[in-house]
Amino acid sequence: MENIDITIVGAGSAGLTLALLLAPLGLSIVVLEQGDAPNSTLTNPQRVSALNLASQRVLNHVGAWQAIAANARSYNAMQVWDADSFARIEFNAQTERLEQLGWICDNEQIRMALYQQLQPFNNVRCEFNCTINSLVQSERDVLVNINQQHLLLSRLLVGADGVNSMVRRTMQLPLTHWDYQQQAIVGTIICDEPHNNIARQVFLPDGPLALLPLPQPNQCSIVWSCAPERAAALLAMDDLSFSQALTAASNSVLGPINIQTPRQSFNLTMRYSSSWQRGRVVLVADAAHSIHPLAGQGMNLGLMDVAALAELISEALADNNDFSESRLLRRYERWRKAEAQTLIGAMEVFKRGFSNTQPLLKLVRAVSMSGVDKLPWLKSKIIAAALGNSGDLPKLAQPQVKTAHSA
After folding, report:
1. Which of 64, 126, 165, 376 could pair covalently with 287 via S-S, beta carbons 3.0-4.6 A apart?
2. Residue 119 carries which DSSP code?
3. CATH number, domain at 45?
């Protein structure tokens, strides 16, 4: 049996970031992952995430940002419009006195950069391709049986193991969920016109289509959310027919489009755990919540979770308090639940508002959206929230924080 301080289940971006945030505190940490170790040769531009400024600050603090940015594409403007009305809104980095609004990053490149930063820490160990056979907790410890042969006894266990979290199921933490009744089609496209570092999103009658700039000037990643019947029809098309449908759906904003990679799809479901902790077990990121991708905030929300948890653990250690006690974990839960609930609610309002085809409501949303575009103070508030420059942020994610790794 091995005694350690913290077990982190899941070596995705959230789990590895948490390990990096906690590593300098001298805690003994083991990260368990059922999949393979990060591999930069397995990158897939279809699996990308939009990172905002708050996430960039956290990743910069742990020293991983330079490697992530080298393989990412920043965007300095956002264009959002409604295909079914005159509604349109644009955000520009220059107007906000910023160099960029965010970055489109390959998920595996993020993992790889984080994993590389962990290598110098002898107090952190990652176990890949492992199976958790059992997870049992007492009042003082959490016991994990790995691969039927190794026992880990830790003071705290963090579930960072994604939307189908084994930790959440094993702890019987109740889950609220509803089906968005949409599927997301993802793929990489080549455009006739350069994307000019602009992230674009059009709201179609059955769901949004996002065109996200990639490192090549004429290459984008798409996320096309639509009703299951429409998704099935799009997936059944040959590449030429799909490319033509995509060009039409985007109003040829980037000229003729050609699909470059095989299309993939996944169901869109909102998941929200009504309890994020039990005893010495706590959930973060997608294990605790998942949201619609229309605003690209999923990974940002998860990274703020781990930054908040690491902040509270650090404060507890500085005050010689127990970092794994339920009172501290409940503080984390209250803090981050409020942020997650706000974002989940906002995404539901957006989805319902733009999927309604009643003429009066279409007119109202068009007037509202165009009105916001003409109110600089309101636009600034909206973009500040999206960029991670407002809200109840962890200290490392706040705009005024300068770190040792800052450029």
Report:
1. 165
2. T
3. 3.50.50.60
